[in-house]
Amino acid sequence: MQDKDKVWIFDTTLRDGEQALKASLTEDDKIQLAHTISRLNVDVMEVGFPVSSPADFRSVQRIATEVKGPIICGLARSVAKDIEACGEALRTAQQSRIHTFIATSPLHLEHKLRMSLDDATAMAVKSIKLARNYTDDVEFSCEDAGRTPHWDLCKIVEQAINAGASTINLPDTVGFVTPDEYAAMIRHLMNNVPNIDKARLSVHCHNDLGLAVANSVAAVQAGARQIECTINGIGERAGNCSLEEVAMIMKMRKDHLKVHTDIKSEEIYRASRQVAKICNMPVQPNKAIVGENAFAHSSGIHQDGVLKAQNTYEIMSPESVGVPNNQLNMTSRSGRHVIEHRLEELGYQKADYDMDSLYESFLALADQKGTVYDYDLEAMIYLNQINDKDEKYQLEFVNSASNSQSVASSTIGMVIDGEVKQEAATGNGPVEASFAAIERLTGMSVEMIEYNLEATGQGASSLGQVNIIAKYDGRPYHGAGIAADVVEASVRAMIRVYNLIYRAQKVSDLKQQRKAG
Ligand SMILES: CC(=O)SCCNC(=O)CCNC(=O)[C@H](O)C(C)(C)COP(=O)(O)OP(=O)(O)OC[C@H]1O[C@@H](n2cnc3c(N)ncnc32)[C@H](O)[C@@H]1OP(=O)(O)O
Ligand SMILES: CC(C)C(=O)C(=O)O
Ligand SMILES: [Mg+2]
């Protein structure tokens, strides 16, 4: 029996999402992502446009052979050679779908296709019939449905269903419509296409006005039962409806919407990170569900609330979308409760410090550097003040050399405890060589967790800003450096890390002494 409250999730990350990338995905990238997407338990995954290039044909073919679970779908224009290529590429799939489309809006018909609606309808019908020779599962889309008169849509959709399409998709291709208009369009088709009960109604929304998710939800409320979407919302121009957002809306607001999906929400974060990395499309920090800040609390009142009851400021748990834990960032907007909580987690009791004076130092440091880390908190307890001026390690000079034909080398001069010392080393590049020289000078080696280089300023005169997270003895340390030369910026950031490690060691010694005494 059909579950009338289930909304099918049709993932098009590897088709519409891929269209928007600066560099196409390789066959291996696509296979890796296809496995990840199938772990989300999507119902359908559209994985390419087989006629578009031999490489896309091959990757659709490989995914059809290797990835089990969801229906594997390919896109084709209403053109015989596209449909034949699609049918052939999908031949080995356990379950396959051919998705064919033609534009229906007056604007696209007149200026792009240069044909009448009747001609487009005839092409669609012919293509759907051809596609049915390859599979029983054929989807038909009216491209730019959002700008197509409703009665025109009714005409072509009725014929598409008669020709054998079992899914009818009504895309808002250019992200133009508003939620109420889109819902009205869905209702119009449901009420006026005589054979509409023979097809599943699908929606495919673009985000040009930031309405892709809202429009998809409105369409579901009006009766649509498939949403086409992409992980992280990637796709043409401003992107597509975001999979993680609609999936969580349906999960969190089931009480109101009365529908559900089969998405395994715990897989969302992993999938998002992998798409961002492989597609080289970073996720904005404040992005709903998967952004770095989606479960981070930075202000004292919120942090206090979350510590008392998580749901005061979290409508879903981080674990429900696969994020390991929430984050309480310590900034100058934080209050005493979160500091006390963090110190308790680090094993301190109230008697170990004086909160009023600690809070004063905390605010001064937070105003100066933004985020305060665990090692800063501990240093505030054990050292009267944190003074960057008398740091153990100071940079004297960087002298690096690199060219495209030989290994890079670097000599670093540093003042260590008042004495100038220098060391040289080689590496794959000047930054690696410089880090190796610093390691020799300090006698300590760190594990690099993150290295980030950004240009600040404009054009060729911009400065290089380097942010590093490096681990020593199991604890992460954060260093930043800025300079006109990116190697020098990297060296400054790394020296900052070594100074923090030194300070943490001093704190640890004082801790031992206090314990012993
Ligand atoms: C809304 C969307 O996202 S649609 C999907 C968009 N994705 C892509 O375009 C990626 C894959 N595309 C491609 O690789 C190429 O565009 C191809 C292989 C499909 C076609 O390449 P070309 O033959 O060189 O044509 P080109 O892309 O320049 O122009 C598109 C042609 O298809 C026609 N066309 C566009 N949509 C359709 C359609 N649904 N059905 C039939 N013909 C169509 C256009 O009118 C134009 O025809 P013309 O050459 O007679 O003017
Ligand atoms: C091919 C169709 C479904 C599309 O991507 C669109 O109209 O945006
Ligand atoms: Mg699209």
Written overview of the protein:
- The chain has 517 residues and is of the alpha/beta class.
- It is 42% helix and 21% strand.
- The longest helix is centred in the last third of the chain and has 31 residues, at 486-516.
- The N and C termini lie far apart (74 Å).
- Magnesium ion is lined by residues 16, 171, 173, 204, 206, 236.
Write a concise synopsis of the structure shown.
By secondary structure, the protein is α/β, with parallel strands linked by helices. The protein is built from 18 helices and 16 strands.
Number of helices: 18
Mean pLDDT: 95
Question: What does the main sheet amount to?
Answer: 8 strands, parallel, barrel
- Structural class, judged by helices and strands? alpha/beta
Counted beta strands: 16
Write the layout of secondary structure elements.
Layout: E1 8-11, H1 13-19, H2 27-39, E2 44-46, H3 54-66, E3 71-77, H4 80-89, E4 96-103, H5 106-113, H6 117-131, E5 138-143, H7 150-163, E6 167-172, H8 179-192, E7 200-205, H9 212-222, E8 226-229, H10 243-252, H11 254-257, H12 268-279, E9 296-297, H13 300-308, E10 327-328, H14 336-345, H15 355-369, H16 374-382, E11 393-403, E12 406-416, E13 419-427, H17 430-442, E14 447-456, E15 463-472, E16 475-483, H18 486-516
Parallel strand pairs: 1-2, 1-8, 2-3, 3-4, 4-5, 5-6, 6-7, 7-8, 9-10
Antiparallel strand pairs: 11-12, 12-13, 14-15, 15-16
This protein binds acetyl coenzyme *A, 3-methyl-2-oxobutanoic acid and magnesium ion.
